[in-house]
Each structure stands twice: as structure tokens, then as C-alpha cells.
Write a structure and sequence with these properties.
The chain is mostly helical. The chain contains four helices and no strands.
Length: 90
């Protein structure tokens, strides 16, 4: 189930669990500032990166492997899984 644009699992995020963030799917801008991944997905009309024909693009890769905030590619795996789930539903 898609919970973010970039593949982050909101249900295990400390900010989401603490009630500080409702998730990027339901807010105009994340609490931490402008998100280029959110902007790209929404601009292209996709629910998340995994649905984009350019996946995995440089932006998604850099975001997932960011030394400070990245998750070593786990969010890309989530996007692939969400895309597969969406394909099976259609």
C-alpha cells in the first residue's frame, strides 16, 4: 500500500507516529520543507515514484541513498512493490 511519494514507510516513521507528520499524500508540503520527489511525482501525475516510466531516476536514487536521510535503497524497493501491487489490481 502506497504511503508516500518516495517509498518511505510512514507507518514506521517516528515523525508520523508522533503525530508531527500526516504524510506527504495528504499535505501540500512536508513539515520539513519543499520535497523535490513529492513535487516531481505530483507534477507527473503519479501517486509514487514506482509508477513513473523513468523509475529509478537520478532524483529518486539520490534521495534513497542520501548519506544523512537515505535508507540505503529500501524506499525504492517499496516503490517497486507498490507498482506491482497496483498492476495486479488493474
Amino acid at each position: 500500500m502506497c504511503t508516500s511519494r518516495c517509498g518511505t514507510q510512514c507507518n514506521v516513521c517516528t515523525y508520523h507516529l508522533a503525530g508531527k507528520c500526516p504524510g506527504c499524500l495528504v499535505q501540500t508540503q512536508p513539515f520539513w520543507g519543499k520535497c523535490p520527489v513529492k513535487g516531481c511525482c505530483e507534477g507527473r501525475g503519479h501517486a509514487h515514484c514506482g509508477l513513473c516510466p523513468d523509475f529509478v531516476c537520478k532524483l529518486a536514487h539520490e534521495f534513497a541513498y542520501d548519506p544523512k536521510e537515505g535508507d540505503n535503497g529500501a524506499r525504492l524497493v517499496n516503490c517497486r512493490r507498490w507498482a506491482e501491487e497496483a498492476e495486479h489490481k488493474s
